[in-house]
Sequence to fold (64 residues):
Amino acid sequence: MAKLSCRDYGFECDFVADDEDIQILLTKFAKHTLEEHGIEYTKEILMQFIMRQKNPWIESNSFP
Fold:
């Protein structure tokens, strides 16, 4: 399972998006950052965030 956390990207916010489905994860995090922080991330940028994490797909053995 992959996850994106606001704190990992410099926000003083406890929001964490995690999901087995990468597309759902990206949608959750993008919606939150736009509504709460006023920052619009594209799904491509969010995929870069996930890809830079240390082994984000190890637990689920799934790849986008």
